[in-house]
Amino acid sequence: MATATETRARSRSIPWRAVGAVGVGLFGLGLAVGSYGAYVTLLIASGVGPDAAGFGMSLFLLGQLLAVVPADRLTRTMRVERVGALGLAGAGIGIAIGASVTLETTYLSRLLLGLGQGTAFVAGMKYVGLRTAGADTATAQGMLGALFTLGLAVALAASPPAVDALGPTAPALAAAASTLLGAALTLRLAPVTGNSITPVRAYIEPFTSADGLALGLGNMATFGFLMVAATWYTDVLAGVAVPSVVILVGFALATVLGRGLGGWLSRGHGERATVAGSLLGLTIVLGGLAASIAADSAVGIAAGLVLTGFGFGIPFGPLFSLAFSELADDPGVTLSGMLLVGNAGALAYPWLVGRLLTATAGYAAGFAAMGLSVGAIWLLWVRTIGH
């Protein structure tokens, strides 16, 4: 049952102050996540193996995986905005630690960032969800997702030249400052309490049904593989005769635009068909990217990297929209289930691409493995939810 605070809050339209406060923090998280590729390049240049460098992003995904259920349960016993501020503060500290680029500090930084982001994402989405209703909920949550993606997009394009010009410390501290500012602003938001405690076994539901697995693995192919892109795209472009900053800007814009395009396509074709079509398209693009890398085709590599931005961006909104109607009535359980399945599935890929790079001296095998994985998810999708 909603509290009196929630009832009054729901009578208002989109809480722009809340979107701005949480969004500043999520923008900082996006900066930290999107800049990781530049730091991977620094680690490799210092003699760290590619698989060990890529494992930092796996630790980030592990942190999110470990945080989502405790974060949701915290929102049921604490005020939601306090849980969000706690997550942002922890992530900000983790980002700052990453300003010192050694393998040990990188691992600690990425793990803390993952724990903080998992907590902040769950609490932030629930906070605006509890203060809105209907279309306003989708708009407010979409704005939060877009602000995170915008930060990631900016960092993907700007972090390589920024790190080259300023060194690794300044970009990391800038991302930490935005995240910590978001924590301070979120802590001052109007109080909102979450819903009642739910049994722990409810969080297992997404793993026990074909629909739940399809939705979670769809999240893996979008958000999870976007993390692979943030880890490796900078290094992929290091040896390609194309303007890398232009390609990264193109990829970033495609990812941000894809978030909006997914909603537009859903209105015309429905969420199920939009997700199915985008997963099939992403399978083809990743396969083409792997072939272009194997053939050392600069044009093919550039086109493939940009087009994956649409593949990661378009299904994101429709997937979460379907999840709220397909998995459970409790939004916290639904959101946690999506993140649990998606992050668990994506966990190995940042390391796997680096491992295959070490074994084959190229990225073709890693992106081929991603393409085959998305193809399998598409097949599961059309046989379950997409039928």
From TrEMBL:
This protein's UniProt keywords: Membrane, Transmembrane, Transmembrane helix
Record protein name field: Predicted arabinose efflux permease, MFS family
Pfam families xrefs: MFS_1 (PF07690)
Top-rank taxon, per record: Archaea
UniProt-listed InterPro entries: MFS (IPR011701), MFS_trans_sf (IPR036259)
One Gene Ontology term of the molecular function aspect: transmembrane transporter activity
Membrane-crossing segments per the record: 18-40, 52-71, 83-101, 140-158, 170-191, 212-234, 240-261, 273-295, 301-320, 332-351, 363-382
Sections of the chain in a coiled coil: none
